[in-house]
Design goal:
Layout (H helix, E strand, L loop, with lengths): L1 H18 L6 E3 L12 H5 L4 E2 L3 E5 L6 E4 L1 H6 L7 E3 L3 E5 L4 E6 L11 E7 L12 E2 L12 E2 L12 H6 L2 H18 L1
Parallel strand pairs: 1-3, 2-8
Antiparallel strand pairs: 3-6, 4-5, 4-7, 7-8, 9-10
Length: 189
């Protein structure tokens, strides 16, 4: 009997480890336009809500970079002080912490042509929309494009089917399902 209980607990743990990562979303920066000059990334972020665990997928051609920078370097398009930098053409940035994250293209002049992105990452679920249509900070007085929008709607770029979809659409449902399975195991043991 103990062996069966251990197997069930093991299955519950595996189920939990498989389902929990499915709560995160990956966002393709700029959608079909990708990471390029001439794209309005403020508009792109306006209908998205980012959460810890989500990821930003930057797709771009040669001659561009993805540099994570400080807020002040973002506002002034200052290159050369990046926190991280990549020029592979396909960069995925996991959003590991809440707060505002800033990205620019490190090629001189590209940030000034609009290749800059700021995302505000919340600590909660990406499926819960704020009650307001969206709130923003006042525009910068230095003439830069630094308005940070807290969006109300999420549009993930990846899709899935079956049980993972229904559970990933509601973290509460996922946690309740896992708790129900654990409780069932405990009662049956």
């Amino acid at each position: 009997m103990a062996s069966t209980g251990a197997r069930i607990v093991g299955l519950v743990l595996v189920f939990g480890m498989v389902m929990m990562p499915s709560l995160a979303k990956d966002y393709s920066v700029g959608d079909t336009s990708g990471w390029a000059t001439g794209v309005d990334y403020t508009t792109w972020t306006s209908d998205k809500t980012f959460a810890v665990g989500d990821g930003l997928v930057f797709n771009y051609g040669s001659g561009h970079t993805v540099d994570e920078v400080s807020g002040s370097d973002y506002k002034t398009c200052t290159t050369g002080n990046s926190i991280t930098s990549d020029s592979s053409g396909a960069t995925t940035i996991p959003l590991k912490t809440a707060g505002t994250h800033y990205f620019i293209c490190g090629v001189v002049g590209h940030c000034g042509m609009g290749m800059k992105l700021s995302v505000t990452v919340g600590s909660g679920s990406t499926t819960t929309a704020p009650a307001s249509k969206g709130a923003s900070t006042p525009p910068s007085t230095d003439g830069s494009n630094s308005t940070v929008v807290t969006p109300a709607v999420t549009t993930p770029t990846s899709t899935s089917t079956g049980l993972a979809t229904s559970l990933s659409n509601s973290p509460i449902v996922a946690l309740m399902t896992i708790a129900g399975v654990v409780l069932s195991v405990l009662v049956l043991s």
